[in-house]
Amino acid sequence: MTVLDSVLVALTALRANLLRSILTTLGIVIGVASVIILVAVGNGAAGEVNRQISALGTNMLVVFPDAMRVMGRSSGAGTALPLSESDLTAVRDKIPGVVGVSGQLDESAAVVRGNLNWTTAISGVHPDYTSVRDWPVSEGREITAQDVQTAARVALIGPTVARQLFPGENPVGAEIRIKNVPFQIVGLLSVKGQSAMGRDQDDVMLIPITTARNRVVGKSDVQVDQVGRIYVKLDDQTDMKTAQDDIETLLRQRRKSGPNSEDTFSVRNLAEFMRARTEVLSTMSYLLGATSAISLIVGGIGIMNIMLVSVTERTREIGLRMAVGGRQRDIMRQFLVEAVTLCLFGGLIGVALGIGIAWLIAHFASWPVDVSLGVIGSAMGAAAITGIVFGFFPARRAAGLNPIDALRSE
Amino acid sequence: MNPVPEGRHVSNGTIIQARDVVKLYKIGEQELRALDGVSLEIEAGDFVAIMGASGSGKSTMMNLIGGLDTPTTGRLFIDGGDISQLDADGLAELRNRTIGFVFQQFNLLPRTPALQQVMLPLLYAHPRPADMEAEARRRLEQVGLGNRMEHLPRQLSGGQQQRVAIARALANNPKILLADEPTGALDSRTSEEIMLLFADLNRQGITVVLVTHEADIAAWARRRITFRDGKVISDERQAPRVREAAQ
Ligand SMILES: Nc1ncnc2c1ncn2[C@@H]1O[C@H](COP(=O)(O)OP(=O)(O)OP(=O)(O)O)[C@@H](O)[C@H]1O
Ligand SMILES: [Mg+2]
After folding, report:
1. What is the pTM of this model?
2. How far apart are CA B101 and CA B120, in angstroms?
3. Tally of domains in chain B
4. Measured in angstroms, how far is the CA atom of residue B55 from the centroid of ligand 1?
5. Which residue from B minimizes the CA distance to A400?
6. What ipTM does the predicted assembly reach?
7. Domain limits at B205?
8. Per the domain annotation, does B157 fall within a domain?
C-alpha cells in the first residue's frame, strides 16, 4: 500500500461515517480556527502599532516639560517649569548626533474661512518640525527660519482641516483667520492617519512658534520663550539611549535640579514605548494562540476515541487485510493516515472558519487583522501532528491484532 | 508415508508438509490440544478435502498452513520454506504471494466494489503489478463475473460473492488455494458451481485444500483427509467426481 492508497481508503472510511467524522473533528476545527483568529487579530494590532511607530518618526526623542513617568502620575501642571528656546538651542548645540530640533506649542482654536469654521489643534513649531517628524508637505512649502524670525502669519494645514474648510479646492495660497488674525496657507501636510490613541493626526495646523506665542496662545498662558515640548531627531549612528541620557544630564544641569531631586521634565522615546506595547500585544496573542492550541489536544483525544471505535468496528476488515498480505506496518499506516486525514480535514474547515471570522472582525469591527500563511501552515501542521500523536495508539492496537482473532470477530 | 498416489494424479513434489504439528490453546487453567501431533504431506497440484467432526481441528490446520497462525510445536513447510521460523512480515508475504484464502463467510469489504476487492492483495504485493486493475479484471472474468466489476457485495448473490472472494484469492497467482467450508453458506446448486470452479482451477495447476462437512463436496477432491480430536484418522485417495454430463 502506498500512502496515496491509504489516503483513498481513509477517505472512503471517513465518508462512510460522514456525520461522525465531522462531529469528531469539531475539536480540531475549533482549535485551528481560534489559533488563526487570535494570531490574526494580534498580528493585525501589532502591524497597526508598527505603522504608527513609523508615523511617529524614527530616531526621535521628545522632551516634555514635566516629569511624566510611564506608569506614574505626572506632577501637577502648576509646578511645571516650561521648556524654553534656550533649552532647545542647548540640546541642538550640545548633544552629539542631533540633526534637527523643534518645539511644539499647542493650542486649540477655531479656524475660520469665510462662513466655514473648524476647531483644530494648532501647533507653533520650528522650521525643522516637519523633517523631525518625517512629515513632509504634499503641496506648497514648509515653514522657514525666516517665518519663525519674523513671526510670519503663515500656516500649514493637515488634510482633514483642508477637507473641512476647502472642500474640493486647493487650500494653498488661501487666507484663513485664527482668533481674528489672518493667516496665509502656504502648504498642505501629507496624510498621517490615526495615532495609536485613535486621534486623527491630520486634523492639525502648523504655524511658526513665534507667531503662536504672539498671536494665538493667550499671553497670560505663555512665557516669552516657551517652546512647549521639544522634538529631537538624531542621526542613525547615534544610540538613542545615550542621547536620551545626555539630554537628561544637560537639562538637569540647566534646570538646576540635582541628580537626586525630582526632574521637572522627561525625555521619552515614543517609538520605544510603543514598540514595547507591540511586543506585549504580540506576546499576548501568541499566548492566547497557544492556549487555544489546548483545544487541539482536546480535539486530539476525540480523534483517538473515534479511531479506537473505528478499529473495533473494523476488526474483521483488519483481519482480512492481514489475511491477503497486509503487514503490521501497512495496517498501522492505514490508521495513522486515517487519523491525520481526519485532523487535516478538521484543520481545513478550521482554517476556512478562522479566515472567515477574522474577515468579519476586520470588516465589522474595523479591527486590523493579518492572517499570515505562516500561521495557517503551523495550524495545519499542529493538526497533522495531533493526528499522528493521537492516532498512534489506536493504529498500534489495530496493527497488533492477531489475524485469525480479527477475522473471527463479529 | 502417504499411500502411493492413484488415479490420474501426477506428483509434482511436496508443497505442504506438516511434521508433528501441535497447536495448544490455553483457556484459563485448561489446555486444549486443537491439533495433537499432525503429520501430513500434500503434493503440488493435488486437490484435497479435509473432513471431520466439528471441533476436530480442521480450521486450525488450515490457518497454520495459510500462515494466519503459528504452531505451538512441530514444523510446517510451505513451498519448501519452514514457516514456523517466519516473523509477522514473512507470514504476511506468504499469505500475499503463495496462499489464496477463501472463507465460509466470504469476508468481503462491505462498501467496496468487486474490482477493488480483487485488487486488495495486489495493493499489498511487493513489487506491485504494473496494471493492478487489468489484473483484477482478468481474475473476475476468470470466475465468470466479467459483468459485475462495479457491484457492491450487497448487490451480489451469495454464490457471486464467493466468486469475488475466489477471484481475490487468485489475485497474486498463488500456488495454494485454501478454502475453509467455502460452500457452507451456499445452497447445493450454487455449491456445485463453486466446486466446478475449484476443479477448474486445480486443473490449471493450483493446489486446492478445502474443508467441508458434506460428502458430495468432498467427492470433488482426489484425496480425503479426516480429522478427529486434533489427529488425522484417515487419509485416502479417491477417484474425483467430474463435471456431470453437459448441461
Ligand atoms: N482461538 C481459540 N482459542 C481457544 N480454543 C480454540 C481457538 N480456536 C479453536 N479452538 C478450539 O480448537 C478446537 C478446534 O477448532 P477448529 O476451529 O479447528 O475446529 P473445526 O474442525 O474447524 O470445527 P468446525 O467444523 O466446527 O469448523 C476446538 O475445540 C476449538 O474450541
Ligand atoms: Mg472450522
Report:
1. 0.71
2. 13
3. 1
4. 5
5. B88
6. 0.91
7. 45-68+87-237
8. yes
